[in-house]
Amino acid sequence: MKPDEIVARKLNVNGIVQGVGFRPHIYQLARSHQLTGEIANTESGVFIHVEGRKENIERFCRSLPANLPPLARITDIAQASDAVRRLDIFSILPSTAGSSRSTLISPDVSICDDCLKELFDPADRRFRYPFINCTNCGPRYTIIDDIPYDRCHTSMKQFTMCGPCQTEYDDPENRRFHAQPNACPDCGPRAFLHGFDGALISCNNPVEQAGRYLKQGKIVAIKGLGGFHLSADALNTAAVERLRQRKRREEKPLAVMSPDLERILEYALVTPEEKALLTAFQRPIVLLRKKEPCLLSDAVSPRNAFIGAMLPYTPLHYLLLEQGFAALVMTSGNMSEEPIAIDNDEAFARLSGMADYFLVHNRPIYLRSDDSLVRHVAGADRVIRRSRGTVPVPVFLRRPQQPVLACGAELKNTVCLTSGDRAFLSQHIGDLENSATYDFFHMTIAHMKRILDITPQVLACDLHPDYLSTRYALEQAQAGMDLVQVQHHHAHIVSCMAENRIKGKLIGLAFDGTGYGADGAIWGGEFLIADETGFDRAGHLAYVPLPGGAAAIREPWRMAASYLYTVFGDSMRDLDLPLLREMDAKKLAFVQDMMAKGVNCPRTSSMGRLFDAVAAIIGIRYTVAYEGQAALELEMLADAGNREGYPFEWQSDGGGCQLLSRPIIQGVVRDMENRVSPAVISARFHRTVIDMAAALCRKIRQDSGLNRVALSGGVFQNALLLKGLIRQLSADRFTVFSHALVPANDGGISLGQAIFASGVKMM
Ligand code: ZN
Ligand code: ZN
Ligand code: FE
What we know:
Elements: E1 6-16, H1 22-32, E2 36-41, E3 45-53, H2 54-63, E4 73-82, E5 90-92, H3 113-119, H4 163-170, E6 191-195, E7 200-201, H5 206-215, E8 220-223, E9 228-233, H6 237-247, E10 256-257, H7 261-265, E11 268-269, H8 272-279, E12 285-290, E13 306-310, H9 315-321, E14 328-332, H10 344-350, E15 357-361, E16 373-377, E17 380-385, E18 395-401, E19 404-406, E20 416-425, H11 435-452, E21 458-462, H12 468-478, E22 482-486, H13 488-499, E23 506-516, E24 522-531, E25 534-541, E26 544-545, H14 551-554, H15 556-568, H16 578-582, H17 585-597, E27 603-604, H18 607-617, H19 629-637, E28 649-653, E29 656-660, H20 662-673, H21 678-704, E30 708-712, H22 719-731, E31 735-737, H23 749-762
Parallel strand pairs: 2-5, 8-15, 10-13, 12-16, 19-21, 21-22, 23-30, 25-29, 30-31
Antiparallel strand pairs: 1-3, 1-4, 2-3, 6-7, 6-15, 8-9, 9-14, 10-14, 11-12, 12-13, 16-17, 18-20, 19-20, 23-24, 24-25, 26-27, 28-29
The structure holds zinc ion (2 copies) and fe (iii) ion.
One zinc ion binds near residues 111, 134, 136 and 137.
């Protein structure tokens, strides 16, 4: 090669490029293109210097973004020519102290195909080893307690690698080069079986023995990646019912895990999009339509047309499930509404009344992370719960932000930290209603600040004075931090805008259960004209009483009474409705009296409560066992016919349009009295909400000229509504934005809070 043919180039690559096998990948790519040079981790990514023939460098740069290691993600590449140094080889430079502090950390990843092959290969030294992993798979986020991401900062630090493991770890050409959780049966974590009382049960193969107990109908608590599951044979009704009873979870659906796709197809319908979701490395729980009749016990998801299913994601799961299970219930290891247990002793204490046996291991979990939950609706994968497999992958923003800590809402809480053009949403924390969840909230904030190396300068929280997340923010603010309070539904819309990387004014539809309104009422059926910095309320559902406040959320019959009273007054008693015949007359009279006197009846414009009211009026549910149950059953009941909606009307006043429920409720009641089937009424009601929302959007467009609509809030988890409204608005030539990466429910609130607060402080 003539000296003048050699050129050099430098590249700065940003994104998720550390701890994901990126450097060995580049090492091999450079060598395959006959290039020499070096690669090193930098503060925000990696630095690459390559030298060789110009055409080889061109080819190297072109193929760089393709065929990345599965966990890597490039956000940008900056290239420039560099001085030729006449290097003989391509080398991976060791990380220097401080060089990789603020790098992006990979989420926990399901076992890869290479490791799976080794797991079931009798000739492999890790044959049937439940903790096999490599650079492309295994635990990450849940085992880190500080940065940089090195073994000494993970829960693997107590395991010293044996000779063969260390050799793999040091070899850039090995799949386990710098794989921090690298381990084998000689040097790594082990599984153990314990009885219900926490006493160790000695046995040769704890995983196999646990499988035997499950087959006998026992309940086994299983330590996984982000916490404990409670498991039972999903075909055994007695076992599943016992699990429900012990966990005090009456009707909320339980997730199941099956060994492979073929087994899932035996009890659920799976579209190609759902198949892709099920097999993705994130391995979320995917909401699927059940086959009828269903192979699984009815107790798994009673009165529900859907089932949440997932494929195994750890080697231990594979070893357990290959013992001949079609499906195992895998529900989070906790008492209802408490955070999932992660520590062995904690599990023995907290789950002792629930589990007959414990299948544990001795690799500590530093940060709990529930299973993520996804549903494919209207052409996109919509995250309902964003946790294991996804966190802490950031949401990449339109522009850099101030470092903000947003504390989220009360239910389905998540927190959000921003840094530069990245927003780090925490994993699902849960409902901040008990001290255990509040502790988890504190812990997650401290943990994320540490491993992401972010020192927030601004705090954001909800307007609601009683949310624990608000109180936390107020306490922190007293210690001298700036605080910005964000209206709940505005935060929903800004969250949707942030995820879609859009700016400027648009029409925001925020439909949810409850959120504290700027006027002190409980909002939830909101049409906002909003941007990142503020909003006007262009319309909302007309206020009705919420009799008994929070009690009305658990008891949809109260909302039915509220709407019937609002529309019919005292003559509601004469209506021919099952609700009025079946409900305790004294209770009804009591609630009517409360409304007449205006006692303990906050006003609400909640869309979620309107769905509850209709569900109760048509007799499908008077009380609920979990949040959103009535609305969900109303959705599932709707027949597929092309139904006409009920009439609707609105009233304009100074504060925007009020949507009047009178004609809708009158229509529903008339249909009930005429013995129209609830399935048809449900379909007509959904159609009405779609028509009404689209009509008001058209009116707002006329007045404002705005042509873009953002949809957010928990009510948009309703697939019928989301699909129908997107279709209608698109037909009306609106540009529609909705959620996919970030939950539409209150799990997405913290993102909107963070963006708003950062904007306020930058102005
Ligand atoms: Zn692997
Ligand atoms: Zn080893
Ligand atoms: Fe909300």
